[in-house]
């Protein structure tokens, strides 16, 4: 799929897929969206010592980077194991041009950004002390065959239902639910009524939250 880089309203960049007429992130602000959906309404709500995160999908790596940024703000007395699925990894040129490390004041972020993208696929790599990343190149529906520890937090960041409706239907949510711990949290930018109903059918407690800039609502769902 042909992709081009665009700048979103908060100055951060995203990828745009011409054939699908779809951005990887909100055009209102890629960084703002990631921090609001996956940090404020995700990571910051988890208090476990060891946090196992499952991301669908890795995309540009921005969600990994904002997660590390938040982790570095803590006293780092906990461990994060981050598992990220991706079917279509971005290329070296796109990684260079996105340059997400420039969005952060920490001078170490250029090295961290490079370590994230240079990390071998299918291997767990310690990006910084206490933060382990495993990138897995696969179709999301291959999740059923992937061995994972019980997941405390899911970043459900698939492309929108307009272009990939099958990713927002019950079969994939069932696979995700099977990997989650009781009281695990799923967070997503979507607020579709059909998604809320599916999650409720799968025994999640679903809450509508204020959405990121440009979006009225989003969803948090706790596995009961």
Automatic annotation (TrEMBL):
One Pfam family linked to the record: Methyltransf_30
GO molecular function: oxidoreductase activity, acting on the CH-NH group of donors; tRNA (5-methylaminomethyl-2-thiouridylate)(34)-methyltransferase activity
Gene3D superfamilies recorded: Vaccinia Virus protein VP39
Residue intervals of the MnmC-like methyltransferase domain: 143-223
Highest taxon in the source lineage: Bacteria
Family annotation (NCBIfam families): tRNA_MNMC2
Name of the protein this chain belongs to: Peptidase
Species whose genome carries this gene: Chryseobacterium pennipullorum
Upper lineage: Bacteria, Pseudomonadati, Bacteroidota, Flavobacteriia, Flavobacteriales
């Amino acid at each position: 799929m042909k992709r081009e880089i665009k700048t979103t309203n908060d100055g951060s960049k995203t990828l745009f897929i011409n054939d699908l007429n779809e951005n990887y992130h909100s055009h209102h602000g890629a960084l703002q969206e990631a921090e609001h959906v996956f940090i404020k309404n995700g990571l910051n709500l988890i208090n476990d010592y060891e946090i196992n995160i499952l991301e669908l999908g890795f995309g540009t790596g921005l969600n990994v980077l904002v997660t590390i940024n938040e982790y570095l703000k803590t006293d780092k007395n906990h461990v994060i194991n981050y598992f990220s699925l991706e079917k279509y990894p971005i290329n070296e040129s796109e990684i260079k041009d996105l340059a997400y490390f420039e969005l952060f004041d920490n001078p170490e972020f250029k090295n961290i950004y490079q370590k994230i993208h240079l990390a071998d696929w299918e291997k767990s790599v310690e990006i910084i002390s206490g933060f382990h990343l495993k990138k897995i190149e696969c179709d999301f529906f291959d999740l059923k065959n992937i061995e994972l520890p019980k997941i405390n937090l899911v970043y459900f960041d698939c492309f929108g239902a307009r272009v990939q409706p099958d990713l927002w239907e019950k079969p994939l949510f069932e696979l995700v639910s099977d990997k989650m711990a009781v009281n695990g949290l799923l967070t997503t930018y979507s607020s579709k009524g059909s998604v809320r109903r599916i999650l409720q059918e799968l025994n999640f407690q679903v809450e509508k939250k204020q959405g990121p800039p440009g979006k009225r609502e989003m969803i948090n769902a706790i596995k009961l």
